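Lab notebook, bench 4. We co-purified these components, and the gel suggests they stay together. Before we commit to crystallization screens, I want a quick structural picture of the whole thing.
Request: model the full complex, all chains together.
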Amino acid sequence: MSTRTVGERGAIYDAAAYPPFAVTVDVVVLTVVDGVLQVLLVRRGEEPFAGAWAVPGGFKRPDETLDDAARRELVEETGVDIARLVQLGAYGDPGRDPRMDVVTVAFVAVLRQVGEVVAGTDAEHAALMAVTDVLGGGTELAFDHERIVGDAVERVRRDLEWSNLATAFVGPTFTLSELRAVYEAVWDVPLDGANFRRSVTAAGWVVGTGRRAAPGAGGGKPPELFEAGEAWARGAPVRRPLRARNQDGGGAR
Amino acid sequence: MSTRTVGERGAIYDAAAYPPFAVTVDVVVLTVVDGVLQVLLVRRGEEPFAGAWAVPGGFKRPDETLDDAARRELVEETGVDIARLVQLGAYGDPGRDPRMDVVTVAFVAVLRQVGEVVAGTDAEHAALMAVTDVLGGGTELAFDHERIVGDAVERVRRDLEWSNLATAFVGPTFTLSELRAVYEAVWDVPLDGANFRRSVTAAGWVVGTGRRAAPGAGGGKPPELFEAGEAWARGAPVRRPLRARNQDGGGAR
DNA sequence: GTCCGTTTTGGTCGGACAGACAAGAACTGG
DNA sequence: CCAGTTCTTGTCTGTCCGACCAAAACGGAC
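Here is the predicted assembly.
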């Protein structure tokens, strides 16, 4: 396969024969602070949309993958390189950038406690904002970034139900209250603590370490520390059988 | 961390300052024939990968959206423009095209009965192949198209559980056996007919028209014809409550 | 026409799970 | 020591899933 000739032929491959695009990556950084889902935004200093808030991002380089480009932008903006990073999709409507033809590939990064990191960079140019404000129209975003943020939130809400993505919002070890707060913040619903414990421990999503965390300010029984376990998959509305007919056992993923 | 000045970023907007990419769209056309999930492939006539099978696709134009580009390519290749079309994601690994820097945006199109359409075009250059053969390594695909097809199949398997995507595999009206055959083909599992009926009708996924279809070759009771209803959403493993806490009722989507 | 095989369609039943609630356990602060 | 808070376990009820059975409605063979 690697012995394909590279060189002539291909008039259609001529530089002038296909329309050139700029390719950028945008990273929607999400985190939960104080029970509120927040998104990291930066303030633009250049036209177009100078002064407007936008999702951090930048140009892809030819010698890096899309994932690497997103991770590089994430490091440049927040200084952290450990994050759950999933591709959201591509956005390429004509005119989305008034200057040139650009296709952007959006990513979602789930972080725990971006707070200090943002403070470490230029605080004037980066800020966390509640997604309800952003999506409610309270803050005008550059380009089609409001749509991108909306898609990102919807994606996270859905993935929360299917994967162990919630553990990315918290640290390597966490209490069940912390984890439950993530679900409640992202979905904006109250969950019963007792039932939550059963659901999340029975299936092996989290496993308890022996240790216990210190109680909160108001006292209370010191909670056990958990860590992430293996991911599972369940289904609806026509529920997919856990075990496939032939080989692979389908459920795992 | 290095300087993140505004001027550096502004200079990138110079026409010569950002790396130009070719942007293409590739469409993974899936259908079910005779209880087997199949993918539409075309044979390449040009280098690179001349003679190899590939997913149909082409260059995006600056004045069209990504969705429009995918639909245009679909029409050019198969002649049909009614299809469930969802974006799969972007693929931009360096070197995936040996000649130039190209980022492709992959789509999944779910069609019913591509057979005649393919025959209508150049049959020598388009063919339906079972996905098990393609993913099993039985057929070598150009570029990273095997990975793309694999991701597309995985996506369809998952979406089948969440949406009414299955109705896109069949016609506007269909029997429950036909619909059940789609699930069984995509998931490769047997499903109980009686339970399937209850699941799919109770939630309003499909609604029965009064009419009945003709029985099959081997006789049997003539089945009722159904049509697609509204989509629902259900969840696991920490099941998302059907009704959200505040306004929107959350379940629909 | 009658019997038989096939497919659809409805019924039933047991186990599993979600959700609501109660109560005990373990800690802090006064 | 007591009150307040939080974690943790226990129990119960309604609902749903999955497996199975049985009747209904057809075509074909005899």
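The longest strand of chain A covers residues 20-33. Worth comparing against the SEC data before the next meeting. Strands of chain A lie at 20-33, 36-43, 53-54, 57-59, 84-91, 102-110, 126-130, 173-174, 206-212, 224-228.
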